[in-house]
Write a structure and sequence with these properties.
extended; 183 residues; mainly alpha; 7 helices; two-stranded antiparallel sheet
């Protein structure tokens, strides 16, 4: 089954309307958050196998999603009205993706790349303890194991500075590319 336009809303609308007519309940697991918010009426969020939130669609907040998924998420990054305007002007699906959706999503994409970079940097530093190499291995082998705490301290400071540089650069680029913020 394909959820590609224009069939992307046909199946979910049918699934949503059928239970109302037959007076039955439908439980579905949708991994696309935007599609789930568009077609779901009630949401159950699991965290560590336990239901932590059971709310209606209108009660879903970004703070709730951040708590469940452990990362900052944006609800419906690209406004549906912008996509609808592009369709009414005769844009093809490829033009909508390349000239509307990607440019509108750049700030969020930059923030996600920043999070990914800092996470990978942290994991690579932690992998040094099991022989993964990099600054983590230098801090463990040449600092901790040889009791040269200055080497370990310098490696940790370099890691912290790298994270700060990545985070600051990513935040600055994200703000600079966001057309919604006043300049």
């Amino acid at each position: 089954m394909s959820f590609q336009p224009p069939a992307s809303t046909v199946f979910p609308r049918a699934v949503k309307s059928a239970p109302a007519q037959e007076k039955i309940a439908v439980l579905s697991s949708l991994h696309d958050l935007n599609q789930a918010l568009a077609f779901g009426d009630r949401f159950f969020f699991l965290k560590d196998g336990v239901i932590c939130y059971a709310v209606a669609r209108d009660a879903v907040t970004e703070d709730m999603l951040c708590d469940v998924f452990g990362a900052a998420l944006r609800l419906r990054e690209v406004d549906g009205n912008i996509i609808e305007a592009a369709q009414s002007m005769g844009a093809t699906p490829m033009q909508i993706i390349c000239k509307v959706m990607i440019p509108e999503s750049v700030p969020s994409l930059l923030q996600n790349v920043t999070i990914a970079l800092t996470t990978i940097l942290g994991y690579s530093a932690m992998s040094g303890i099991i022989g993964g190499g990099g600054l983590g291995k230098i801090a463990i082998d040449y600092g901790y194991y040889r009791y040269k705490y200055l080497v370990m301290l310098v490696a940790v400071i370099i890691l912290v500075l790298l994270v700060q540089v990545f985070q600051s650069l990513g935040t600055w680029l994200g703000k600079k590319c966001d057309k919604r913020l006043k300049r």
